[in-house]
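Sequence only, no structure available. Ideas?
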Amino acid sequence: MKTFFRILIGAIIVIVLVGTFVFLYQKSQKKPEIFETRNPEITNIIKKTVATGSVVPRREIEIKPKVSGIIEELYVEPGQMIKQGNKIARVRIIPNMVSMNAAESRVNRARINLDNAKTEYDRYSDLLKNKVIAISEFQKYELSYKTAREELSDAENNLALIKEGQTRKSGETTNTLVTSTIDGMILAVPVEVGKSVIESNTFNDGTTVATIADMGEMIFKGKLDETEVGKIREGMPLILTIGAIDNDKFDAILEHISPKGVLENGAIQFEIKAEVRLKAGQFIRSGYSANADIVLERRDSVMAISESLLQFKGDSSYVEVETQPGIFEQRFIKTGLSDGLNIEVISGLKKDDKIKLIKTFSTQ
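Reply:
I predicted one. Tokens follow.
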């Protein structure tokens, strides 16, 4: 019985020793490296630069009143479509007291002159009928009477214009009515009924009653750094990305590059403008922020690889191509246009070649 236990213990010891030896041997073996590979792909390579800015209407104007006064009525609200000549607001004039007093005094003087001229006219008219005077003498008093009558009419119209913003001869209150000068959409109405407004003149820009724009013709206005502006030219295509509109891009054509740069945040910036090509039914709100990808150069449907696969030797570039499982060879290639992530492969590779990633992975 004792012999059996001795044999059993010896066998266990042998098994443990053999197992330990096998484990240590396997542990000492070099772990094989497994390399991930990538195939070339057919894609579009677009080299571009980015300008930041916003999308605004090409025609956006501020409507200002012709007279100073108080907003008496408003006929529009933001978002409403309007035609040229449509009413926007009515202004009630608060007359200048000095001007009104002078106008009233002029009316009184004109009325006195007219009364006097009419008296003379009537008297000499009777003398003419009785053939006491010649017609040539009568015509002087007739002219004086007509002149005095016209002077009174002008004085009354001037007084009405100061007090009401219109003459008695006019059929409409053309000065007190604020009307649209273009067809478009009301973007903003920064006044309310009862607010004072000032007419536009040489010394004052005047109060904006409404802002109107043609929303069917939009442009991108942005800024581009001086290091990039030399790479672009008018007529280049742009691809607009608008932050407020997800999963949609807009085409545009560069139409203006400012000839003068402006210093902003320590760098010279040049303003650019581009015509936005809206599709049927598309609508963009004024003032949306946008990024414009300006296409400097592009290659469509070309073989390309990730730039991270490239390695360099001197002035030449190469990749490591798998010839057999786990075996790679250097393959020098000729490259073309790059977009910063992918690069065009002109020659040296085939579509089914497996290219080794520079990063390696080991089994655990």
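Residues 64-93+176-213 form a domain with the OB fold (Dihydrolipoamide Acetyltransferase, E2P) fold (CATH 2.40.50.100).
Hope that gets you unstuck.
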